[in-house]
Design brief:
The chain is of the alpha+beta class. It has one domain (13-175): NADH Oxidase. The protein is 32% helix and 16% strand. Strands 1-2-4-3 form a 4-stranded antiparallel beta sheet, sandwiched between helices.
Length: 193
């Protein structure tokens, strides 16, 4: 089941097809497929081409380490994210090599994440980005210095499975049609007075 967006204006089919799935099948994502996703992420736009995005990932087949990733997630994400084929932790390098703060770092990581997810969608791999996790646990697990790195999101990846395998409230969320704000709620034309 693909929850294709119903749009008011024509947009790229890949964007219409992308959505945050929760029901993942047992089908494994290969190392080559993972590398393809990271290759796509690497081509996102970036201030001064600094590319501040960083990723740490684990495959479900590495049960012990996969559990450590799942343990970082909030209770609202654990029940379904534990079925993903791959979990990724996304974070940002906060400073340029000269020590100055990169004020665009989070923006650029978001762009890389979007590029990664669109590439995944083109391969019929679905992703769900999660801001619901323990920063403390993630910083500790990945041994990150908060002065140098900023946690961003976890990403669950997998091939789609049937919504019926999910418990509530996740099953209902999986089948509920997607919606977005109307354009006039977030964009306006500038008119000089």
């Amino acid at each position: 089941m693909i929850k294709e967006a119903k749009t008011n204006y024509p947009i790229n089919e890949l964007i219409k097809k992308r959505w945050s799935a929760r029901s993942f099948s047992e089908k494994e994502i290969t190392e080559d497929e993972i590398n393809t996703l990271f290759e796509a992420a690497s081509w996102a736009f970036s201030a001064m081409n600094y590319q501040p995005w960083r990723y740490i990932y684990v495959k479900k087949t590495d049960k012990e380490n996969f559990e450590k990733f799942v343990d970082c997630l909030s209770d609202g994400n654990k029940p379904w994210a534990k079925n993903a084929s791959v979990l990724i932790f996304s974070y940002a390098k906060k400073k340029y090599d000269d020590g100055n703060l990169n004020v665009s770092a989070l923006h650029d990581v978001g762009a890389a994440n979007a590029t990664l997810i669109l590439q995944a969608t083109s391969m019929n791999i679905y992703g769900h980005l999660m801001g619901g996790y323990s920063r403390t646990k993630a910083l500790e697990l990945f041994n990150l210095d908060i002065n140098e790195y900023e946690p961003v999101v976890f990403i669950a990846l997998g091939y789609l499975d049937k919504p019926e395998k999910l418990e509530e409230p996740f099953k209902t969320r999986e089948i509920t049609p997607r919606s977005r704000k109307q354009i006039n709620e977030f964009a306006k034309k500038f008119e000089s007075s």
